[in-house]
Amino acid sequence: MSRADWLGGWYRPARRLPSPNFGPRPAGLGVSLIVVHSISLPPGQFGTGHVQALFTNTLDWSAHPYFRQIQGLQVSAHFYIERSGQLWQFVDCDQRAWHAGTSHYRGRDNCNDFSIGIELEGLEGGLFEPSQYSTLASLCAALAGAYPISAIVGHEHIAPGRKHDPGPEFDWHELRRLLGWPASRFPIAGRAPAPTRRSDGKDAPG
Predict the structure, then answer these.
(1) Is 119 a catalytic residue?
(2) What is the pLDDT of residues 106-115, one digit of tens each?
(3) Of these residues, 82, 119, 121, 124, which one is catalytic?
(4) What is the pLDDT of residues 115-133, one digit of tens each?
């Protein structure tokens, strides 16, 4: 993937919608992890535009009863992939998005510090569309061409017992087939690791 596809940490093929919810990464810490999430607002409803509104702090909390449960939440992800495969970007990849919350991976806490967060429009444990896998694979390949990515996991794998997305119906084998990456970069058989010590961080609905 050509670096020409990037403008700094912004991926040119994505539809850009900047979020105010981000911060600097720790000095000298590179991006090495991709974290896959799932989200829909309200849960199970697609194409509403509410996810984009949540990530830009413009969600109308009175628009649906569910929103009262998350009112005031300030979160973000670097990317969001709609059911159609449409790709959005909210945070510069060189910056720290607020997507992983309390998390731990391979001896390191605070996965937000060194990861890229990608949200898939869908229900936790539900099926995802072929167009989403295609866009996700293209994006992951582009990220690996621009950053030293060593692994890709689900939110469930870095926050076991607290988060369960994207869930058991997410097809890690298909993503691996599309990417052609070695098995060592993926979760082992989709299983979450045993709970480990974690530190505080911002939380997100997916």
Answers:
(1) yes
(2) 999 999 999 9
(3) 119
(4) 999 999 999 989 999 999 9
Strand runs (DSSP E) across 43-191, as ranges?
79-81, 87-89, 95-97, 104-105, 108-109, 115-121, 151-154
Number of domains present in the structure of the chain: 1
CB-count exposure of residue 156 (10 Å: 0-12, 13-18, 19+): buried
Pick the closest to residue 118 from 34, 6, 2 (CA basis).
34
* Distance between CA atoms of residues 167 and 165, nearest Å: 4
Work out the average pLDDT over 6-13: 97
Full domain range(s) for residue 64: 3-190
On whether residue 19 sits in a domain, the answer given is yes
pTM for this entry: 0.91
